[in-house]
Amino acid sequence: MIKYGIWLQLVLGAGNSKIKDILNNFGNAEKVYRTNQKARKASGLFTVGELKRFEMTPLTDALRIMADCKLHNIDIILLGDKKYPYCLSVIEDPPLVLYIKGNLPDFDSIPAVCIVGPRKVSDFGKKAAYSLGYRLAKSGITVVSGGALGTDTCAHAGALKSGGKTVLVMGCGILSDYLPENEKLRAAVSKNGCLISEYPPRFQASRYTFPVRNRIMSALTLGTVVIEAGLKSGALITARHAAEQGRDVFVIPGSPDKKEYTGSNRLLRDGAKPLLDASDIFNEYIVRFPDKINIERAYSGSITEGDSRKKTQEVKEKQKNLNETLSKEAKIVYNCLDKQKFLPEEIRNTGLTASQIISALTELEMEFLIKAIPGGMYEKM
User: Fold this and answer.
1) Do 319 and 374 belong together in one domain?
2) Does the pLDDT of residue 99 top 60, yes or no?
């Protein structure tokens, strides 16, 4: 059956929205293969171009792909297989074929969150993606992203650093030579999670493949986090898919006068959930996954067990080092914190807007310099 599924996906292309209708009509991919052109045309399910590709795509193409996958330890999962994630199968346009390098998590029983943002991300965005990826993965949440430069790379790197699980959904084939500078990252992800693609192993990337890929990222997860998004950002496509699929959309607020947050702020205006700190995600899912999410472990950072004097010194050293890489706004807010516990509205004389202060607090919280506590308050670490 696998060879017929691969063959049918070669004919129809990735992201085809008619997969379910075709399978419901014919029964399975093998029956589509064995049906003559007259009957295929009579079904009314195929375009003229697709009918031509039926005649131009031999089954041997699928057999070559299967051999290539076997040689490189790439698993092939068809829609309807027991291993196929149910959460992905129920969307309107599920992939007919998934190619997997590594160990596919059980997305239907474990929490997973998608992190997206631009390739040209700000310094704050890089740190936010890295810190969020680290904390989520350390808590037991699988971090999903797309393996691109910028935001995606930072999210994957943070998850890997924590020792947790991360999944990279590719917009090309797993054996494609796209983005060679991230080859080591993909290798690391395949050992600590997996690579996923609906494209044949050597299929090359194009400007069209990544938007098609984004629906998979959102469908595999409980929610999508938008780190930054300008007016025309691929992150907005993933957020739209998430909303349409009934998933949550979290957005880090940004200053309205910065173009990299134009799309982000519009998402917030349209009902997305503001992400002020990582606890917003934990609070959303801990009730559903009390035995899978370990919040205490997520906030343990890199501080090891030992005497309190050693811990205090490590925290101070960490704060000193992190403070050297903070954004200008975060430094201003941090230097204005004159109380151990405080409310955001108690921060005065910064010269910053309320939105800038919220963004700065998010950065400080993600860098372990402050932490959120009950009552909408924060506490200096």
Assistant:
1) yes
2) yes
